[in-house]
Amino acid sequence: MREFETFFKENYARAYFLILRITHDAEVNKDIAGIRS
Q1: pTM of the predicted model, to two decimals?
Q2: C-alpha separations of 8 from 2, 14, 29, 31, 35 in Å
């Protein structure tokens, strides 16, 4: 069970940062689209 916990925490953090990066990129793209139009 301990191994699963560690695995889950590591992957949760990785997924969280991935989501943050995706949402950040989406915000940046929205800004670029706003400037372009």
Answers
A1: 0.57
A2: 10, 10, 31, 34, 40
